[in-house]
Amino acid sequence: MEAKIKNHYLRKDVINEILDYCKNRWIAIELQRKVRTIVRYWKNKNPIELKNEDCIKKLIVEYPNLRTIYATVNIYKEISAEKLRDLNNIEKTSIVIDIDGSVEDFEILKKIAEIIVSKAEKYGIYKSIFLKWSGRGIHVHINENSISQEILKNFHPLDIAYAICEFLILECKNEIQKEAEKAKGKEREIKVENKIDIQRVFTVPLSFHRFLDYVCVCFKPNEILNFDLEWAKPENFKHNKNWREFEIGESDNIAKIALSKGFSYLKKLSEQKIIEDKPEKPKRIGSIGRFQIMALLQAARYYLIKEKNIEKAKSFGLNRAIFYAWAKYYKPIYGFSRKTLQRFEEVIKNETSKIKFEKVGNENAPISERGWFYIGDKEQLPIDFDKNVKNKIESFYNFEKVWEAALKYLEKFPREWLEDQRMFFEKIYKPVRDNLELIFKESQKKKEKLTDFI
């Protein structure tokens, strides 16, 4: 751990802010490594919880590469491995709208935050609202304590938070879009999202950003216009401790209106539930497309026939998905233009090419000096797989269960098919490419014989 980061987390004022915010929340940390690594458990396998100053010191000792600290959007009655998946164990849920973008569009991000805050104020929320600079975006928070017991006894905290976020975003949709269209940042497009879900985590106050040299500082609505990136510099940050302020019942009115519109996280969860042992009616999942299914199965394929290295498998899976998507459509795919990929194909065909390949079955895939698969001049990293594949799947299902199902599905086929590029595509991928749940259903069947399809 860099001395700067360690010294920052050992500051008394920083410790106090982190502990106050993290009380009764499940903690996740990000380690400073080449491959993105998130940890949610102590070395003894218990969920990470920050109860006191000693816990933060322990965190630094157990995870010397600590970079960023996150905390769940949920506040729990009890933090234990057995209780964390129990919906009845959730006492309150923070109301957080995520504004994400590029630092280049800093002023636009502030303007969008101002639009959302102004709309919340029209529904009577003044004291209980605060904002956090996350590192390259702004989180608009409405304090969970501003919801009265009258509302909480009739609705689940996740439903309340989800409904309010959804309602506010839709109410501001047109104004947000007008501002977002002004964005010039090339690094990231501006997104305003409702990310409330059962396992969602957000950066805690005064935590370091995962790679930018900023810390997460809080400020109040009356400070939006004056807020400057200098406030987030770790060596001399400016942080408003009044994020703790709230007024009980202040958010009741907007909660009632939002809930009356039918916005419900639990309904969404039940409709797009975690894959069960025997799904009754497999259905097409609109936002989980062929690209994600191809990447998933190619990653599982690599894992089974090459090496059980999940990070390398992710790189291969995304690489092959991009390649096949481009080959089929001849259009920009995930940042790759037709010209870039055609030029890369020409280089591959050139016998004097110095490109290194890794043989996977009967096909060769280009590999970088760092050991990642790549196309054009861009490596396909595990973090890219998570962004474009895993996160899409996790919007509906538990990815670990899907991964296990994918491995079981592939294991029932002859190894010759897994190693053969054409057989893999025709006999393994195509039958399930339009329906993720078919992978789980087919994985339960007996192992196929090579003669079954000849």
Q: Could you characterize what this model shows?
A:
The model is unreliable at 274-286, 329-338 and 448-454 (pLDDT under 50). The protein has helices spanning 3-9, 12-22, 53-62, 106-122, 149-152, 157-171, 173-180, 252-260, 265-271, 290-305, 310-329, 338-349, 382-394, 399-411, 415-419, 421-429, 436-443, and strands at residues 27-31, 37-39, 66-72, 74-76, 90-93, 95-100, 129-133, 137-142, 191-194, 201-203, 217-219, 356-360, 363-367, 374-375, 378-379. The chain is an alpha+beta fold and 454 residues long. The strands form five sheets. The protein has a five-stranded antiparallel β-sheet. A four-stranded antiparallel β-sheet has the order 2-1-3-10, with no helix packed on it. It has two domains: 72-271, Alpha-Beta Complex (DNA primase, PRIM domain); 290-453, no CATH class. A hairpin with a 3-residue loop joins strand 7 (129-133) and strand 8 (137-142). It is globular, with a radius of gyration of 24 Å. The longest helix is centred in the last third of the chain and has 20 residues, at 310-329. It is built from 17 helices and 15 strands. Helix content is 41%, strand content 14%.
